[in-house]
Amino acid sequence: MPPPPDRPEISALATAALDAALEAIPAPAVVVRAPASILLANARARTLLAADRERVMEVLRAPPAADARTPARFAVEGHPGHALVVLPDLDGDARHRVQVISRRWGLTPRQAAVLARVAQGDTNRTVASRLGCSEKTIELHVSALLAKTRCTSRSHLVATFWTDPCDGARTAAALR
C-alpha cells in the first residue's frame, strides 16, 4: 500500500528500509519495473552493473527458464509489473551454500537438491521436472524443509538460505 501523500517521511523511511533489506541479500539483487527498468540495486548488483551492464540487462529481459542462470523473481504485492530480482549465482556460491547448509540443517540429499532449485527461484513444477519426480513429492520435500528450518514460508526459506553466512557463525534458527 503506498504511503499517504501527506506523510512523505513514510516514503523516505520505506525507501531506506528497502535499501537496507537489499543490502542484506548476499547476492546481486534489484527492484525492477517491467520489463527491465532498475529502480533500486544493492551493492553487489551495482558492482555487477558497473562491470557488465549489458549482460545484467540481458538476464533481466530474458524470459523465465528452468535453469540456474535465470534470476529469481518475486512479485511486489500491490504493484503489478514490479519485482524483486535476485540475479543468478555467478561464482558457484549456491553450490557451496547447499553443501554447508545441508550438513548444518541435517538435510537428506534429495532435500538438498530441492533446496538448491527452490533457492534459485524454481517453482515446484520446474523442480519436479528437473529432478524427475512428481510435483506432490516436491511439495512434501518443501514442507519438510520448512519444518526442519522452522521457516514460515517458501520466501522465508529462500531468504534464510541466502543470508545464512555459511561460515559456522550462525545457524538458520539464529536468523529468526
Automatic annotation (TrEMBL):
SUPFAM superfamilies: C-terminal effector domain of the bipartite response regulators. The keyword Transcription regulation applies. GO terms for molecular function: DNA binding. GO terms for biological process: regulation of DNA-templated transcription. InterPro entries: Sig_transdc_resp-reg_C-effctor, Tscrpt_reg_LuxR_C, WH-like_DNA-bd_sf. The keyword Calcium does not apply. It comes from the Bacteria. Residues 100-165 form the HTH luxR-type domain. Keywords: DNA-binding, Transcription, Transcription regulation. This is Transcriptional regulator, LuxR family.
